[in-house]
Specification:
By secondary structure, the protein is mainly beta. About 15% of the residues lie in helices and about 50% in strands. The chain contains two helices and 14 strands; from the N terminus they run αββββββββαββββββ. It has a 14-stranded antiparallel sheet with strand order 8-7-6-5-4-3-2-1-14-13-12-11-10-9, with helices on one face. The chain is globular. The termini are far apart.
């Protein structure tokens, strides 16, 4: 099997993996309801973290026989909102020996009210940039308007109940704290070919931390809830979920671990190192 054929078979997996990280590692946030500052905001801990990923299962006949990677994540509170920065590198090994080296970065900003969102995504394949997306989204009373600047200038209208990534994360944590077990939300993040997804979630009860990370500030020692999520691209729900995963969400907004299920193979992400960032001095 030549590289181009191998690439076409798991291009969707590569992109959805990176896009899923954007949606589910941004565990901190702004308002859970547009226009209102969330009471959970004060519990969110600004932090910088490092994760590593490895394959935990590959079915016989899978086009991907091995996967490994790293993720650098920074969540910082600014005076006007939250900034999330990510850099992810994944190496996918094909059944015939060919491999793909995928690098992905994204920067997001959301205001505390959950009414404004800016994003920039860059996607690299074997060292060559293959995609870049830059844009912003604004919430109005009757819907969400998305304006893309790169790769082309275009405007998109989304339903009024569309959430932004950190906004959605806080909503999940609020449900967990209230003892709720299920959720179903429309979320826009601006990344990849399917930037808007209907996300169905099952929420576990409270669990004790299990990580072995380098954590000098002890911010990953809080209890967590395991969130099992299924992603349905907008307008394609009849085709089933594009990605299924589980994330261990700490009650202070720290992701302890991530599990990705792509059918043919599974990938597990482990927290290696984490430290607390200072609060902003806004005068």
């Amino acid at each position: 099997m030549i590289l181009s054929v191998l690439f076409s078979k798991f291009e969707v997996n590569r992109r959805s993996f990176a896009g899923t990280l954007i949606l589910c590692s941004g565990l901190a946030g702004c308002a859970a309801q547009a226009g209102n500052i969330s009471a959970m905001e004060s519990t969110m801990v600004p932090h910088v973290a490092e994760y590593h990923f490895k394959m935990t299962r590959s079915e016989q006949g899978s086009s991907v026989v091995d996967a490994s990677g790293v993720l650098g994540y920074r969540f910082e509170k600014m005076c006007d909102g939250w900034v999330t920065e990510m850099q992810q590198i994944m190496i996918l090994q094909g059944a015939e020996g060919a491999s793909i080296n995928s690098a992905y970065s994204m920067t997001q900003w959301e205001n505390f009210a959950g009414t404004q969102y800016r994003f920039r995504m860059r996607d690299y394949l074997d060292g060559t940039k293959v995609d870049e997306i830059v844009g912003k989204a604004v919430r109005e009373s009757d819907g969400v308007t998305v304006t893309y600047e790169i790769p082309v200038e275009v405007t998109e209208e989304l339903p009024a109940d569309t959430m932004f990534p950190t906004q959605h994360s806080v909503e999940l944590l609020k449900r967990a704290a209230a003892g709720e077990k299920f959720g179903n939300d429309l979320v826009f993040d601006g990344s990849g070919e399917t930037p808007t997804n209907r996300i169905a979630v099952v929420i576990s009860g409270e669990k004790k931390p299990e990580h072995k990370a380098d954590d000098p500030d002890g911010i990953a020692d809080t209890p967590f809830h395991r969130m099992s999520l299924a992603f349905y691209p907008l307008g394609e729900a009849e085709n089933g979920p594009s990605t299924e995963m589980a994330v261990d969400f700490g009650e202070n907004g720290v992701a302890h671990a991530m599990r990705f299920d792509y059918g043919e193979f599974e990938v597990f992400g482990t927290l290696d190192k984490i430290s607390k960032l200072p609060q902003p001095d806004c005068g």
